[in-house]
Write a structure and sequence with these properties.
Length: 141
Amino acid sequence: MIRACPFCHKPNRIPAKHLASAGRCGACKGELAPVAEPIDADAATFDEIVQGASVPVLVDFWADWCGPCRTAAPEVKRAAHDTAGRALVLKVDTERHPEVAARYGVRSIPNFVVLRGGRVVQQQAGVVPHTQLVAWLARAT
């Protein structure tokens, strides 16, 4: 995955297994903090992160037209912030990437899946508070 340095704005290629770790920019040596926001994932990004992550991954399957998904979005963002360094959060738009949603039998959205080592450890549809999302990730550790 490519992340821009917050100091010099140069792109840095970060392997999936290091997205939850702090690192250094290859250009200016500034600190690259662990990812603390949801990552919009297409099929390739999804596969790379789920297969390579060293921490649990929460996936939010959503769509732009979905009112409950918009209600859940701040909760998902807060969960990503609260678990930075201990988990990763992905957002998969089911309209743009239905093949990824189909792999997990997603029939209603929002739908949350927690993966550890590429395997499902939790799946639930419907809006939940960020505290529940964080608890699922803690149990998957």
